[in-house]
Write a structure and sequence with these properties.
The complex is a heterodimer of chains A (about 375) and B (about 375). Chain A is built from three helices and 29 strands. By secondary structure, chain A is mostly beta strands. In chain A, strand 5 and strand 6 form a beta hairpin. The longest helix of chain A is centred in the last third of the chain and has 11 residues. With about 375 residues, chain B is of the alpha/beta class. In chain B, strand 3 and strand 4 form a beta hairpin. In chain B, helix 1 crosses helix 3 and helix 2 packs antiparallel against helix 3. The longest helix of chain B is centred in the first third of the chain and has 33 residues. Chain B is elongated, with a radius of gyration of 33 Å. Chain B starts with a helix and ends in a 9-residue tail after the last helix. Classes of the chains: A mainly beta (about 375), B alpha/beta (about 375). Chains A and B meet through loops of A and helix 5 and strand 10 of B.
């Protein structure tokens, strides 16, 4: 199991509570579940890397627990209780240096948890109805939050009393009516202070905290449906957004024009992620498929059927196809890409890899026999 | 070069003559062609070809192989030639069939099996979302979805049927007939109320389903089916609606007994969701005394609804009578959550340009 989890280059969280890992080089998808019974309480709402070396994944579920999954061992190593389900589901998970965990729930409470204590070290209120919280990749202590009728706020976790930057709502429209705003997702643009957000009223805004203007610096409209997910590709100046109808588009941020649309998705987009180095975007959503498109020619590269509605997605930083380490993979890179490019590919049956681990902390050993039994039943 | 010129002209002229007995030599046109090559004026060329070509008219052997019936400019002649061609083809086909049949009888048991004709359903592109009955994850997903309350026997269906604003004629009658088909259904007049306001009131009054029939020019053309506590909303296009008056050889009106439900051919994951949506409209335990059955048959992404009464004459023979309205549905979108077309999240949307391009690929 450890070896299967080491192969996976894309990680997804589903509504049934199963963490799925997909290995594109071997064209296989693996399920990693905590216990032998699944429940809707375990629905995965937030996913993030536990450390920069990407050996651990943090999985936030609806019932308020954050589980740590180790990719080396292929098992859930620990579980922490980080909030009540009454407050709402997780809208963001982040990790601070020094193994501290930052969680944000829908009612707006942002908490920083230390490794040992079960109480939050720092707590702040980010308003009501928070839809998303994201961490800045450059300054690890800066986080941004936004929600319905709750504008973008950038917080510094070391000074939690007041936000560093609060965005102002757009000017009233031509009838002098207040414009509603609903921030669904945001991202920090690397190499600068700017933040780009997408809203439920099909707008994409760019905010610049370093400028005196608190209103958006750039506004782009796309489509007629709420934009639900956003991601920044490795090559700058562009942003990829997805909406509830399954339309995914690349927008150019220099002028605010649509560069192109990515076709194929049929259901609402729940998770979008661009690969950190390759020009590739992965999308997952309510239609139970993972799709990987290339950003340059907008063609579908891989499509995987994953049986449950998918909520979040994460890329591993390494090469997508270079995950295979076994012998017999000595073909040159070009040949591999030719084979993989193209339309839908038939995927092998999914292996149900599961292990039962104790729900206390510091528990590592997974029983090998259960895994073998499950594999046999699957066959 | 010369030869091709001769060919075209000759055909035209040949058809003008239209000889029934083309017994002249086929060699003569060639000979004349060579002669005409020497002549200078084109008209003389044409005339000589015409004279010779008259000989070649009608005989298939005399025509150059690139000739086709569509090159004849005269419509009547072209038509006659085409009919002759078709008759020839039909004769050959019959002969081939007879020969094959004889061979098959001659071989007896050792004959090769009969070939199955290709249909669009045969050639359907395999859909990877087809539900495998043993799949645990899909079974869990279905077992805990929005319909689990109904399928576990906890709730009984209660349906509210309404229309778009100010319905006319056929739509009103269609709604009434639908209410007799679905047990525990109530028809209400829509007084221009917003659906988003209707839905909380329905939930408060314990309704489990909301059906809104959309009308266009006095004819129903759309249906929104919303499962109530927090369930998915499906939007269908309705076509070919036939009311009870228009049905031939129909039985008497349906009784109050709960019908059985037949769901045919819902094989993919999306198909399963829609199938469950339809199944949850009717009470879980059908009353077999009533001998009524409602069928939702999916073929090529169209769902055909029929309502019958059956009677078993003996163990093997059954007689059916069609009662009730009949209509066809096509799914346009499936939205997660109750009706919210602007801000709701869609689980499936029909995108015609992407999905309708392949004739053999179906979604349900």
């Amino acid at each position: 199991m450890g070896d299967t989890s080491r192969l996976c280059s894309v990680w997804l969280g589903s509504e049934t509570g199963i963490l799925k890992g997909v290995s594109l080089s071997r064209k296989q998808a693996f399920n990693f579940c905590n216990t032998s019974h699944l429940s809707r309480d375990q629905e995965v709402r937030a996913l993030c890397w536990g450390d920069p070396a990407e050996s651990e994944l943090l999985v936030g579920s609806v019932d308020g627990t954050v589980k740590t999954f180790s990719t080396e061992k292929g098992a859930f190593t620990e579980t922490r209780r980080c909030g009540d389900p009454v407050e709402g589901c997780f809208t963001g998970l982040a990790v601070l240096s020094g193994s501290a965990l930052v969680t944000c729930v829908e009612c707006g409470t942002l908490r920083v948890w230390r490794e040992d204590s079960s109480e939050a070290v720092t707590e702040l209120n980010a308003g009501k109805n928070v839809c998303r919280m994201r961490q800045s990749p450059l300054h690890r202590h800066k986080v941004a939050t936004g929600g319905k009728e709750n504008g973008l706020k950038i917080w510094d976790l070391e000074r939690p009393e007041k936000p560093l930057f609060t965005a102002k709502n757009l000017r009233d429209d031509w009838l002098d009516l207040r414009r509603p705003h609903w921030v669904r997702d945001m991202a920090f643009i690397p190499d600068s202070d700017k933040v780009v957000t997408c809203t439920g009223y099909h707008q994409v805004h760019v905010f610049d905290p370093s400028s005196p203007q608190r209103r958006p610096v750039l506004e782009v409209e796309y489509g007629e449906y709420p934009l639900t997910a956003l991601s920044l590709p490795a090559a700058g100046n562009a942003v990829v957004v997805g909406n509830t109808h399954g339309q995914i588009a690349m927008l150019d941020l220099r002028k605010g024009l649509v560069r192109g649309c990515v076709k194929g998705l049929v259901g609402g987009v729940r998770g979008l992620q661009c690969h950190p180095s390759q020009p590739v975007v992965a999308s997952c959503g309510l239609d139970r498929f993972l799709r990987i498109h290339s950003l340059e020619d907008r063609k579908l590269q891989h499509k995987v059927y994953l049986k449950s509605r998918l909520n979040c997605i994460l890329f591993a930083s390494r090469d997508l196809e270079g995950g295979g380490e076994a012998a017999g993979q000595g073909e040159p890179q070009e040949v591999k890409e030719e084979e993989e490019g193209g339309d839908d590919e038939l995927w092998d049956t999914m292996e149900q890899v599961e292990e039962s681990s104790k729900r206390k902390t510091e528990e590592e050993e997974e029983p090998q026999k259960k895994k073998k039994k499950r594999k046999k039943r699957q066959d | 070069m010369d030869i091709t010129e001769v060919a075209v002209n000759r055909d035209n002229k040949g058809k003008k003559k239209r000889k029934k007995n083309p017994k002249k030599k086929s060699a003569s046109p060639e000979g004349n062609g060579e002669d005409s090559g020497d002549l200078k004026t084109e008209q003389k060329l044409e005339k000589s070809e015409a004279a010779a070509a008259g000989a070649g008219a009608g005989a298939a052997a005399a025509f150059p192989p690139t000739f086709s019936v569509s090159e004849i400019k005269n419509k009547q002649r072209r038509h006659l030639m085409f009919m002759k061609l078709k008759q020839e083809k039909r004769k050959q086909k019959l002969q081939l069939k007879r020969k094959k049949k004889k061979e098959r009888e001659a071989l007896g048991d050792k004959a090769p099996p009969k070939e199955v004709p290709k249909t669009i359903e045969n050639q359907r592109v395999y859909d990877e979302t087809t539900v495998d009955p043993e799949d645990e994850e899909v079974a869990f997903d279905e077992g805990t979805d929005e319909f689990s309350a109904y399928f576990n026997g906890l709730t009984n269906p209660k349906v509210l049927i309404t229309t778009s604003d100010r319905p006319r004629g056929r739509t009103v009658r269609f709604c009434e007939q639908l209410a007799t088909v679905i047990p525990n259904a109530h028809v209400y007049y829509r007084r221009g109320l917003a659906l988003k306001r209707v839905i909380p009131q329905c939930i408060a009054r314990n309704f489990t389903y909301l059906i809104v029939i959309n009308e266009d020019r006095k004819v129903p053309n759309g249906m929104v089916l919303c499962h109530l506590p927090d369930g998915p909303t499906a939007h269908f296009k309705v076509s070919s609606v036939k009311l009870r008056k228009e049905m031939k050889r129909r039985g008497k009106d349906p009784t109050e007994h709960s019908p059985e439900v037949i769901l045919n051919n819902f094989s993919t994951r999306l198909g399963h969701s829609i199938g469950r949506l339809f199944a949850a409209l009717f009470p879980q335990d059908p009353q077999f005394v009533g001998r009524q059955v409602a069928t939702f048959h999916n073929q090529r992404d169209f769902i055909f609804f029929r309502f019958h009464r059956y009677i078993f004459k003996n163990e093997k023979k059954v007689g059916i009578q069609e009662l009730g309205p009949r209509f066809t549905l096509k799914l346009r979108s499936l939205q997660k959550g109750t009706f919210d077309s602007k801000f709701g999240e869609y689980e499936w949307v029909l995108k015609r340009h992407e999905m309708d391009s392949c004739r053999r690929k179906f979604q349900l």
